[in-house]
Design brief:
InterPro entries: FN3_dom (IPR003961), FN3_sf (IPR036116), Ig-like_fold (IPR013783), Interferon/interleukin_rcp_dom (IPR015373), Type-II_Cytokine-TF_Rcpt (IPR050650). This is Interleukin-22 receptor subunit alpha-2. This protein is mostly beta strands. The protein folds into two domains: about 110 residues, Immunoglobulin-like, CATH 2.60.40; about 100 residues, Immunoglobulin-like. It has two helices and 18 strands. The strands form five sheets. Strands 3, 4, 6, 7 and 8 form a five-stranded antiparallel beta sheet that branches. Strands 13, 14, 16, 17 and 18 form a five-stranded antiparallel beta sheet that branches. Strand 13 and strand 14 form a beta hairpin. The longest helix is centred in the N-terminal third of the chain and has 8 residues.
Length: about 210
């Protein structure tokens, strides 16, 4: 039979990490090595770096899930945060497992833009929409990510006749509508785009392909 100290060690959460996309921020962790891991309950706290007191996250207090949504708690995006998780099994509590420091503005991943295309016989018009954050304006609409960063759209064209993998950068800038001209009628083209952040030298993933035949 495990002694209390062994049980505490065996249920202690591992790999406590923030994951964040467009400021939608969740805390993830792995279970300890206890075989009864499915009966373990978890308790989450968070704080701003430099504060003395930890805050309980009420919705993640005594949960069996290994994910906790901290979007609301990390909404001051320039502040650095910590979180920590402990586990309990059969009345025995593990020690706390601490996350790394997390600063939303610096570390959230930016998602790709939404892309829509329309075509005429020799040109393609591309409409771009930046991803939205979870934070809302007073009127209720979600604030676009472009409010928080100096972001550029990068638009690439793929000529399916030549090579599916060969993307050519045709536009970089802030315009939400661009026109790609002097294309060949009867050819299938695909458009992909991403967001680029010069200041941090980060790019989003590529958007899904939008294809059209002129």
């Amino acid at each position: 039979v495990l002694g209390n100290q062994d049980l505490q060690d065996s249920i202690k959460p591992q790999k406590v990490e923030f994951h964040s996309l467009n400021f939608n921020t969740t805390l993830h962790w792995q279970p300890g090595w206890a075989r009864e891991a499915r009966d373990v309950l978890y308790f989450v706290q968070y704080k701003v770096y430099g504060q003395n007191t930890w805050q309980n996250k009420d919705e993640c207090w005594g949960i069996s899930s290994r994910v906790c949504d901290l979007t609301h708690e990390t909404s001051d995006i320039q502040e650095p945060y910590y979180s920590r998780v402990r586990a309990a099994l059969a009345g025995v509590y593990s020690s706390w497992s601490l996350s790394c420091r997390f600063t939303p503005w610096r570390e959230t991943m930016i998602g790709p833009p939404m892309v829509t295309v329309a075509h005429s016989n020799k040109s393609i018009t591309v409409k771009l929409q930046a991803p939205r954050s979870p934070y809302r304006r007073k009127r209720g609409s979600k604030i676009p990510i472009t409010n928080y960063y100096d972001l550029l759209y990068q638009v690439f064209i793929i000529n399916n006749l030549l090579d599916e993998q060969h993307r050519v950068l045709v536009y970089e800038g802030k315009d939400k509508v661009i026109k790609i001209e002097a294309l060949r009628p009867g050819v299938s083209y695909c458009i992909v785009a991403k967001m680029y952040m010069p200041m941090l030298d980060h790019s989003s993933a590529y958007s899904s392909r939008q294809c059209t035949v002129l």
